[in-house]
Amino acid sequence: MLDASISLDPAFTVAPVRRRTFGTFVEHLGRCVYEGIYEPGHPTADEDGFRGDVLALTRELGTTVVRYPGGNFVSGYRWEDGIGPVDARPTRLDLAWRSLEPNEVGLDEFVRWARKAGVEPMMAVNLGTRGVQEALDVLEYANHPGGTALSDRRVTNGSVEPHAIRMWCLGNEMDGPWQTGHKTAAEYGRLAAETARAMRQLQPDLELVACGSSGSQMPTFGTWEATVLAECYDLVDFVSLHAYYEEGDDVASFLASAVDMDRFVDAVVATADAVGAQVRSRKRIQLSFDEWNVWYQRSWQEQSAAGLEWRRAPRLLEDTYTVTDAVVVGNLLVSLLRHSDRVTAACLAQLVNVIAPIRCEPGGPAWRQTTFHPFALTAALARGDVLRTEVRSPEQPTPRFGDVPVVDAVATHDPASGDVVVLAVNRSLDEPVRLDVDLRSFGPLTVAESHLLSDPDRLAANTRDDPDRVRPRPVEVTLDGGRAMVTLPPVAWLAVRLATD
Predict the structure, then answer these.
(1) CA separation, residue 83 to residues 22, 394, 420 (Å)
(2) For residue 373, which of 275, 328, 470, 485 sits 20 to 30 Å off, Cα-Cα?
């Protein structure tokens, strides 16, 4: 048995909990849109063809913002293909995922779905094969009240009120050679600046996201951010980060994936602030971690190398997640929360079927993957302010990151209700941990609820036939003299909410 402790004080805060931290992502990829959020023939489908069971799980997940329509897909997307009468819309080849795109769901349908789900839409514009004019066109169509050709077209198409989309991504992963229309940092930075300037002429209060590196392992990482932001620093509000993790043959490093996320965030913050100083700006660029998840990329590479047929809604990237994956996802949320002073938006990629917390079958059920639970509970419980969380823990070696703490944690405090929430993980594969949390600065507290996600089989998963095989269960938390004590089994994620006595 290992011992670890956490010290908390309400006077030491990082930043408010950002509700946009709990974003997700809907891309025209695989079965995320078709047979995912949209399946007109499904028993639960509503009058617009949206699956009611997926909508219900989206609300339960606690999603606050959803990025759309890509992802790699957006770099070849013609937004106008997805508006107007559905039977008149063209079918196109999607080069990004080698699929047929029927355009049955487009901007108007997505916004309608977002309103039903109670989420904020976050739109990406195509800066791969298109540019400034097309970005202006889709913005005018989406947001202008009326009285122009494009805004009146939206009204004619059934959306009388403007879509009022505030947050716009200026392209996607333009640093990646795999991206349709891939550009150098200088080329993209200039295009992002031109596009941002023009979009602000149409609507000054937009929140704009410039493409950062699509991974911290990219050979251009760091120099890409510096070059791009030097071009557009005062024209954008965010720079993006993307990161995916998979287990492979190195389980210890996989369980410590949040160490990589921490370093990635810190490096981008340092780079952005250095550029801000160079351009003598008082503005502080925020970070949008708008793609992150566990993704078995080697399986995808094998699938794509074998060759893909041109098909509508093929089964792509439908990873089945384990307890271990869920613990890593929970730990990545810990990392995002502790950086809430600069990471003010984030999107788990993706929402349904494609590397997703929700899975479903055509004509059949929808169910929660293991990763659904830490996301939903963190979104539901984390309120108020993120606290500076002092963790004292034994360390364990990892091949990628060296020695890392066995226990990682973050906590939040809601001054309005007095609630304290502790989120923690045990990264050890074989050692339980006795965790001691010092809460004396908060006065008398009681344990309002506790949730432990763990299993004797760390590879246990939820499936169509056994959708609740893995789910959080209550765990005993002992309070004594202003301290909370709980035992975490190996490979475990914990959430505890303590309320004022």
Answers:
(1) 28, 56, 46
(2) 485
